Sequence to fold (504 residues):
Amino acid sequence: MTSNSFLRAARRTATAGAAAFLIAAFTVPSLVSPTVAADGPESVADLAQGLLGAVVNISTSQRVKGTEGPGAVPMPQLPEGSPFQDFFDDFFKNRPGEQGNPSQKVQSLGSGFVVDAEQGIVVTNNHVIADADDIEVNFSDGVTLKATLVGTDTKTDVAVLKVDPKGHKLTAVKFGDSSKMRVGDWVMAIGNPFGLGGTVTVGIVSARNRDINSGPYDDFIQTDAAINRGNSGGPLFNSDGEVIGINTAIISPSGGSIGIGFSIPSQLALGVVDQLRQFGETRRGWLGVRIQPVTDDIAESLGMATAKGALVAGVIKGGPVDNGTILAGDVIIKFDGRDVNEMRDLPRVVAESTVGKAVDVVIVRKGVEQTVKVTLGRLEDGEKLASGENGNADQDNGDEAPAVSAASVLGMTVGELNDETRTKFGIAAEVSGVVITEVAKDSAAAERGIQAGEVITEIAQESVATPKDVMDRIGALKEQGRKNALLMLASKTGELRFVTIRMD
Fold:
C-alpha cells in the first residue's frame, strides 16, 4: 500500500463516525463521499502485514526472594503425628521464603522490534528488561529465542538485545526520520498490549517535543494511537513503514489507553542504539556546566531582548570549560549551529554530540553576544566528578577589607563571611562572598525563596566580597534604571543558582 493510501484509509477510519455526528447535530455539508460511506474505509492490512513479522513479544523472568519479616505468618507448632501435619507442610513450607523454596519467579511482558535480521538485534525499552534474569523473544510465527543483553541506557529508557537466529529467518524494520513528522501525521503502533501479541492500532501524531519529566532528554512524540500496558518497547511506524518512535509511556488513570501515549523519537533513539551496539554503553558529549532557565526577569537583568537560552549557574571544576571559556552567568543561545531556545534543549544537543569534538558555542556575556570554541568531554566520565563537585567557578572576590560589617538591602540583612558566620550557618570553606544572615518576612527576597545562610557571590555578574559591595552594586543598578537585580547565590555547600529580585 502506498503512503497516500495509508493516509486516506486512516483518515476515513478516524473521521467517518465524527462526520455522521456533525451531520446529525449541526446539518453541515457531508464530510465523506457517498461512495466511501457505502464501501467502508480502505484497509491498512497490506502495510500491517509487512511489519508484523519484525515486531516481537519480550518475556522476562526474575528470581525474587520470598517475603519475610512482620508480614510473614509462622507455621503453627503441631503435636507430633497430628493429622493436619501434611496440610500445614504443604501450605507453609512450600511458600516462597521458606526452606527449600527461597525465591519465586516473577514474569513480565513487553514489546520490541528487530532492526538487524542477520545479527539478531532487537530494540526495546530498558524498563521492559530491567533486573531480568532471563529474557526471551517471541516471534509472530511462534518461534521463541533466548536473548542476551547488549546494553541499556536508563536516561532514554532504551535497551538493545541480541538473539541467535539459528537458521530462523528474521524480518527487520528500519528507523525513519522522526524530525519530519508533523502534528496530524498518521502513525501505526504494533505491540503486545496485555499479552495480546501482534496488536495493531492506528492514530495520529498528537504533539511533538513533549517533556513528561521522565529523564534528562525528554523529547517525546505524543500519539492517540492506542498504547496499553505491554506495548512498551514496541515500534511506532510512519505511513512508509519506518520506525519513527519507540512506545514508552502512557497517561492513564485506569491503566488502559485514553489516547495519550508517548514514544521516544527515532532521532534520539537511533544514536543511543548505535552506541549500545558498538560499545555496550553510551558515550555522550559533556560540557561541564550547571544550568537553569532564563526567565523574563533574568533576561531583563542581563539586558537581553527576549528570554531564551540556558543560563550557566556554575562550572564544574576539572570539566571541559573549567578554563575560563564559559563562565557562570553566561547564557548559551546556540550550540554547534543548533539554537538553544530553552534550557532543556542544551543537555540533549550536547549529549548527542561526539566526545572530543570541538564545537562553537554562542553565548551572551554581560549583554554582548560572542562565540567561543569548546572541546567536549565525556558525560559518563564526568558524572562522578560533577556529583562530588560544588560547581563553584573561581571568582574575583574583590576588596577583602569590609567597609561595614552588615547591611540591610532588598529585604535581606547581609554580613561579612568570616569564621564566626561560617560556623553559625555551616558554610563550607571554599564558599566565598557575602552571607545573608536574615531575610525579612514578605519581602521581595523571601518571595524568591532566599534563605538565611545562603551566600551572595555576584550581583549583575560582578563579584561581591563585602556588605558594602552589595550596597554599591544595588545602588549602581538603580541609577542605571534597572528594575531587577540578578544575584548569584551559593548554598552552604557551594551549589550555585541565580535569582532576580525586583528593586522597585
